[in-house]
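Archive entry. Fields below.
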Amino acid sequence: MRKTFIFFGLSLAGFFILSLSLLYSGFMDISFSNAETAVTQIQDKRPVVYFGVVSRYSPHLLYEGYQPLMDYLSGETPYRFRLRLSRTYRETIEQLTRGEVAAAFLGTYIYIQNHQEKNLRCILKPLNKQGLPFFNSVIITGPNSRIRGLADLKEKRLALPSPYSYSANWLFKETNLNRSDFDSIRYFDFHNTVVYRVLKGDFDAGVVKDRVAEKFSGAGIRIVYQSAPIPASPIVVHKNTPPEITRAIINALLKINLRQKQYKKLVQNWDAEFQNGFTPAFDKDYIAPKGGK
Amino acid sequence: MRRFISLKGRILLSFGSLIILLMLIISLSVLYQWRKLIIEDQIKNSEAIAQSFSFSVLDALIYHENGLQESEGYLQSYISNYAQQNARVKYISVTDAQGNLKAHSQISALSGQSHFPAPIISGFDKPVTAIFKHPDLGWIIETNFPLRTGGKYWGVLQTAFDAEPLRQAIRNIFFLLSGLTTISLCFVLLLLFYFAGKLTSSLSALVKNMDRYDLQNPIEDPLPVIHDETGFLMRRFEELKNRLHTSRQKLISAQKQIYQAEKLASVGRLASGVAHEINNPLNGIKNCVYVLQRHADDPGQRAKYLPLIDEGLTHIETIVHKLLNFSRQERTKFRPVNMNKEIELVCSLLEYRLNEKQIRLKTVLDPELPEIEADAQLIQEVLMNLLINAVDAVGKDGNIRIGTRKFGTEKIELEVSDDGAGISKKIIDKIFDPFFTTKEEGQGTGLGLSVSLGIVEAHNGQINVKSDGPSTSFIIQLPIKRHHESIID
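PREDICTED_STRUCTURE:
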């Protein structure tokens, strides 16, 4: 009996050690891959159409918000649309005049300033949440600021977006404030940067588009003043832009009907400025507005 | 024959196997889950690093494509510096959407002479991470991170880190859990061994008590008082022992009564011969007394007849003494017995019957026959039974032969044979059955051979019968030394 137990014990121990060894080698082989079957991409040989955009946001953000729109246009037209960024607002105008881009997302201010001289034509403008083709420039402050209105801005540090943007110029054109009323004024490339610097307390106030300010309302940004409705930033073509391309862009973007589920889903990843659809734009719409509140 | 496995062994084997199996399953599951968590954590880490890295890379690619600034140099420096400062980095590369290598942590790889794994170029939206053993770099965890912005595919960022620390972590857990499992298993098995022993100890005590129990020498060997099924079994065993003891006493008593009854039956069958034996000297004494009565004063007559009377009375006394010796109910006891003398005694008791039928009795007794340890009374009864049967079987002028001899070194053999009627094959198997007889009613009890068989077996001997035609032989083998207890004790 004792021999049986010893034999059984030794067999068990041997089996245990053998299993442990096999288990060890199995566990130490950590080979792994979560690769799925790759999708073969079809070579697209359609003509490429470049679409300019003023540098209102950082390049990364521009691609995030504008590339889906390019993909939509590529899907709806016989062209492949690609974004072409620029360092400045003015560079986009030059790209249009040189024919490097067939169309562009321009700012309202720079369009009003240049459309006649540069033979530009607005074709579409985005709608806001109310379904109107306007936006507002707003004066923002940090959460602990004592600024309550225009009167409190004197001798304060002011942050502004690109000097070619409407928001950077509206304050001095449509209110009684002058540049000399401020302690300091600084321009930044992007609207978002203005918000960041105000939040950090580097500046007492800043001016940005209402949509940008709303985006950061949760972070403590307060709006103390806003402009009168400003015509929305237009999509612009040059007079030399092939009309079929212009027509294709207009048709594709006006086709968006947000009452249909497919379009609602489509615009979800687009820049917030374009999520409410488009409406045709005309030069007569782009006259500088007056006043604010 | 099936191998004996004790109850304790069975408990250990079944519960032990079950516990081992359960613990192994639990340990393996924990180990597998733990390993999975570690690997998943590392994969997430790798993908998180690649993702955070991707923002800078994407900006550089965007700036480069839009001609906003010279970014390839910046990208290369960024990657190289990161790789130099992080010892776990095996390599980092950036490949554009067309499959052109834009930057690599190993500058030499830019020339195209690379032994690094090629990145996944396109066709995937989510990071693809793999852990594998590279022939030169060892175990690495590689993430191919697709560079996308707003749906535009820019290329792929490939990061690879040393996976050896991951394996080390798994190794540590493996040994930790294996060690803990082994220790726990040993502990649990020891506990099981202890409790199984405790559970079966009462049963073992019962078995030992049963083994030790001697029906001939019942000694007091009290069992432990246990209040469970084993205790119940023990109490039943105690009751069984008592019943066995009582039954044995009754059996011994009944056996003795049978022996005595059979003995008295034999005496009855001897009675006529004994009466004749006594009658002859009694007639002589009567004649002597008659003569002495007539010549009461004659001293010569007294001197002549008184010795004759004394001789006759002595003869009668001898016969009566022999008969008393045979029929006495003595307490059985084993003592050295000379088989030859016992044969002579029994033959003398049968002398009249033998003479009456003119039967020739031939005794071939071994003078060197050793004494055996036996009960003389019982041996006499066996001899008497066999000889009476032989006398009854043979006719006038028949022959009976009694022989003794040594059988090997440890036994003696006794043979009683006759040339009487023989025993037919039909009944030869039944002759030792109780109450089986071929004699007429009143001539026999049918117990003679049955009792003889019982006595021989009680002496650990054997009795065999052979019948060939008219001759019949009963052969008895008895051990010289008494080496077994028997019911006749």
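CURATOR_NOTE: Chain B has two domains: 42-107+117-172, 250-479.
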